[in-house]
Amino acid sequence: MEKTPRGTSVGVDDPYSFVGVCDYLTGEGKCRYAYDHYQHDPEFARERAHADYACFVVDPESEQGDAAGSCTGCSGADADPEWADCPHFRSRNHDHECVRCGLEERRMGQSDERPLLEEHHLSYASDGRTLSHEITVYLCRWCHAKVHSSWARITDDVAPDPEAIGAREGRRDRELEELGFQTAAERTDRE
Questions:
Q1: Is residue 62 part of a domain?
Q2: Is there a domain that residue 186 lies in?
Q3: Is residue 13 one of the residues assigned to a domain?
Q4: Does residue 116 sit in the same domain as residue 66?
Q5: Which DSSP string do the residues of the chain spell out, in sequence order?
Q6: Average pLDDT, stretch 15-20?
Q7: Other CB atoms within 10 A of residue 178 CB
Q8: Which residue range(s) make up the domain with 129?
């Protein structure tokens, strides 16, 4: 199982099994990283510009005669390039729901309360210094603690912790209370 630099578990064997598409991929299959962040990796950006910014994972034909996935900054040179082959791949989960137990986030506006969900990183630098691909998902605080402090896995089929349900329902009740209508007479009677 993958580990953090401190040696705690991240709860998965293969972080890439939890990704959909790269965050930098546009709807047309173009690499937005090469266009927006040219200065970070000019060689990669030049190659993508030469291929009209086509993502080499989505469109292996974009290499224009080279072997598919053979861009200079890319780690793979196989016929079917994968997300792991791109040096600038990033995938962050945008669903505000725990990927392990399904608990949904309930944010309280204008509140300092700790969120129910936390970002959980699935990939870390192998040598502790070199940046790896950013792959993150959301876990509720309770699942997050279990994954990092035990052998719990993200793929476990579990229900939300009773404490988590209580915290979510408490927030929901306060939310509904805020939406309730009170006449001026009712408000003055309370004070």
A1: yes
A2: yes
A3: no
A4: no
A5: --B-TTS-B-S-S-GGGG--S-TTB-TTSBBHHHHHTGGG-HHHHHHHHHTTTB-TTT-GGGGTTSPTT--TT-S--SSS--GGG-TT-EEE----B-TTT-PBP---TT--PPPSEEEEE----TTSSS---EEEEEEEHHHHHHHHHSS--TT---PPPHHHHHHHHHHHHHHHHHH----HHHHHHH-
A6: 88
A7: 9
A8: 91-190
Asked if 73 and 109 sit in the same domain, the reply is no
Question: Which tokens sit at 3?
Answer: 């580990």
Q: 143: buried, middle or exposed (CB in 10 Å: 19+, 13-18, 0-12)?
A: buried
Q: Given 88, 109, 141, which residue is the final one in a domain?
A: 88
Write the pLDDT tens digit of every residue in 70-122.
565 565 555 678 998 999 999 999 888 999 999 999 887 777 888 999 999 98
Residue with tokens 């994972």: 57
The pTM (predicted TM-score) of the whole model is: 0.76
CA distance 85 to 73: 9
**Does 44 fall in a domain?**
yes
For residue 85, give the nearest of 19, 157, 5, 181 by alpha carbon: 19
